[in-house]
Amino acid sequence: MFDIHEIRSQFTILNQQVNGKPLVYLDNAATSQKPNSVLEVWTQYYTEINANVHRGIHTLSQLATEEMELSRRKIQKFINAKHDFEVIFTKGTTEGLNLIAYILTQKLKKDDEIIISYLEHHSNIVPWQMLCERTGAKLRVIPIDENGILQLDYLDQYLSEKTKVVSVNQVSNALGVVNPIEEIIAKTRKNSDAYIVIDGAQSAPHFTIDVQKMDCDFFVFSGHKMYAPMGTGILYGKQEILEDLPPFHGGGEMIATCSFDGTTYAGLPFKYEAGTPNVGGNIALGAAVDFIEKIGHSTIQNHENALLEYAQRQLLEIENLKVYGEKANRTGVVSFNLEGTGISSDVGMILDKMGIAVRTGHHCTQPIMDFFNIAGTVRASFAIYNTFEEIDLLVEGVKKAQRMLS
Ligand SMILES: *Cc1c(COP(=O)(O)O)cnc(C)c1O
Could you report the per-residue pLDDT of 331-351, keeping only the tens digit for each? Predict the structure, then answer.
């Protein structure tokens, strides 16, 4: 059995007052808090090891290299990649998606097509628009219905020999809707030779990830949304694909030989890790994986789903409160508005005065907001350390905001 008080005791930051009230942190889809075990590994790296990796033969450099490679193997297991060298350290999901869009440039030509969805974060939209500008390719967007569900018959229509990339998220950060990526991947494989990219920023913190079973070509996520430090992230790519594609950044660490007559590139994963990496952060990401695995994915999912259902049930009892996205197949996020009380940020400000941290606005998903014809939503998002008492405080706060704003 998991003990929520024991879990919370591992997060010093939660034990504080904000605006004179105990902090209720419900902005986990923007970034999660970090447990002491992760912070200790990070501090230990800088107090005892700090040295550059893969470069020196001196003891600390070797230790730093060993620790970072050990972390890579933990992440390999965490996502069930076939090889550890298919796991590339990045700054986060945004960098991962930009990297992929950049290295695919030579593979696309005028009038080829890239399929994404209405539910994407800006970081899974803009890099593809930039790729279209470079190549003359076109973007096609799978629409959603009123419940935020992808209309997959459009995917059937769009898929053709022109389709070169299909890139979708597994879970929407704005609505929490879980997308049918198994079906999307199966349809794509059957009807095209497209590269399949999955944005796992909102799924990696909550679900068991198995990239081999999923059969995606790329899978990207951020460390900071799954209990690891900011500035960490992972790009997974299939070996044969990463070996076939060109490098992204040029510089130190990514070469085999370098001369003015020409340069040859290092093998995986170093070909995609130019320059000095975030060694301490990357090692701490391994500690975050340990933290998640110690609690267990099923425990995490059960608790977060219970919180979500509890929050949703109570929020829906509030008159004139609209929850966006379908109710059944969601994870970790409840996105809503109080109708007739103006903008979401007013609600957010009132909640903040009560010590409750939520996100308001468009959540880097303006197309979704345009679809619902709103400027933004109030989004509460959950992690393993959140409690039912915190949901009660949220609901009380929302009711108070409604009284104050109407
Ligand atoms: C947060 C997020 C991103 C961007 O991640 P960064 O850590 O800001 O790079 C991309 N996609 C989704 C679904 C997200 O939630």
Answer: 999 999 998 877 889 999 999
Nearest CA to ligand 1 atom 14: 201
Instruction: State if residue 271 touches ligand 1 by the CB under 6 angstroms criterion.
Output: no
Q: Which residues contact 78 (CB under 8 A, 6 or more apart)?
A: 209, 289, 292, 293
**CATH top-level class of 39-293:** alpha beta
202 lines ligand 1 (CB under 6 A): yes
CATH 3.90.1150.10 residue window(s) in the chain: 4-30+296-405
pLDDT, the chain, mean = 96
From the CA of 36, how far away is ligand 1's center (Å)?
24
Pocket of ligand 1 contains residue 232 by CB under 6 Å: no
- What Cα–Cα distance (Å) separates residue 26 from each residue in 125, 294, 296, 375? 26, 23, 21, 21
Residues of each domain in the chain carrying CATH 3.40.640.10: 39-293
pTM: 0.97
- Name the amino acid, one letter, at 257: T
Give 125 Cα–ligand 1 centroid separation in angstroms: 11
**HSE of 275 in the Cβ direction (CA atoms, 13 Å)?**
9
Q: Can you spell out the DSSP letters for 338-385?
A: ETTS--HHHHHHHHHHTTEE-EEE-TT-HHHHHHHT-S-EEEEE--TT
Distance CA 28, CA 32 (A): 4
Question: Is residue 167 in contact with ligand 1, taking CB distance under 6 Å?
Answer: no
Pocket of ligand 1 contains residue 28 by CB under 6 Å: no
Is 364 assigned a catalytic role? yes
Q: Give the tens place of pLDDT for each residue, 64-96.
A: 999 999 999 999 999 999 999 999 999 999 999
Enter the CATH code of domain 4-30+296-405.
3.90.1150.10
Q: How far is the CA of 179 from the centre of ligand 1 (A)?
A: 16
Amino acid residing at 222: S
Q: Across-strand partners of 268?
A: none
**C-alpha dihedral over 85, 99, 156, 214, to 10 degrees?**
20
- Ligand 1 geometric centre to CA of 109 (Å): 28
- Catalytic option among 132, 216, 258, 364: 364
